[in-house]
Amino acid sequence: MGNDKSSQFLFWDCVQLIELTNRKATDLHELLEGIKEVPPNSIFLHMHQSFLKYHFVHPEYNNDFSEWLSRKLGDDILAEKLSELDPFEYTSIEDLRKTMIQILEEHTCKGLACGKVARGEEFYFDQSITLETLTDIKAGNLVEFKECLKKIPLSSIYYHIFEARLRLEKKSDDFSYWIEDSLGLSELAQKIQEMDPYVLSLEDIRKELINLTDSYVSQQS
User: Fold this and answer.
1) Under 8 Å between Cβ of 193 and 176
2) Which residues does the chain have with pLDDT short of 50?
3) What tens digit of pLDDT does each residue of 66-124 get?
4) How far apart are the first and last CA of the chain?
5) What are phi and psi of 127, to 5 degrees?
6) What whole-number distance in Å separates Cα of residue 195 and Cα of residue 207?
7) Cα 177 to Cα 163: distance, rounded to the nearest angstrom
8) Which of 47, 154, 193, 216 is most buried, taking the most CB atoms under 10 A from its CB?
């Protein structure tokens, strides 16, 4: 494979700037109303920011809503239900929001809602702006791609895996899209798409990407 610049993979990095909103929740009803009304980037932030918080370990709950429901409100049942949601099944935050609302409303209708949290234990809705930065790291073939994976920051992996789905509006990520579209390696691209990043830390995702790529490089040698 050559190094045609038009087919090179350019690695981007990102930083999330967190903005406070005036919205908070003290109980399940207020959490539900907040989820209905906050902007999409707030939903995205609270469903994903744990991956940037915990680079090397996978947290007990993979989103802020579940963590608050369990640790502050004491509703482990609902926390588990939201934690079982796979955002990778959605290409739109609005579709994900609808599913979350349905889960919370069903839980409320069954009379399973807990009481209010104490002062200082509220859920605060934040929102984020993602600042994108082009790095000087690039790959023109699979061998170069594997070496790049070893040195890119974990926030770059987050950007190309998690943020990509909203940009592409597809059940795909930047890595598998490039591998299939530019390198023609549909089998490897499919294996990357089949990864479940929501049960992995960012460092585990890096290792899995390197292993998959290395295995394919070895087969082609």
Assistant:
1) yes
2) 1-2
3) 999 999 999 999 999 999 998 888 888 999 999 999 999 999 887 766 789 999 999 99
4) 13
5) -140, 165
6) 12
7) 13
8) 47
Q: What is the pLDDT of residue 112?
A: 67
What local confidence, expressed as pLDDT, does residue 110 receive? 77
- d(Cα 220, Cα 142) in Å, to the nearest integer? 11
Tokens 């930065």, residue? Answer: 133
In sequence order, which residues have a C-beta less than 8 Å from that of residue 166 and are 6 or more positions away? 44, 91, 92, 93
What is the H or E stretch that residue 136 is in?
strand 123-139
How far, in Å, CA of 190 to CA of 170, rounded? 13
Q: Which residue is associated with the tokens 């609302």? A: 101
Residue with structure tokens 């809503």? 65
Alpha carbons 140 and 6: distance in angstroms, whole number: 9
Supply the pTM of this predicted model: 0.82
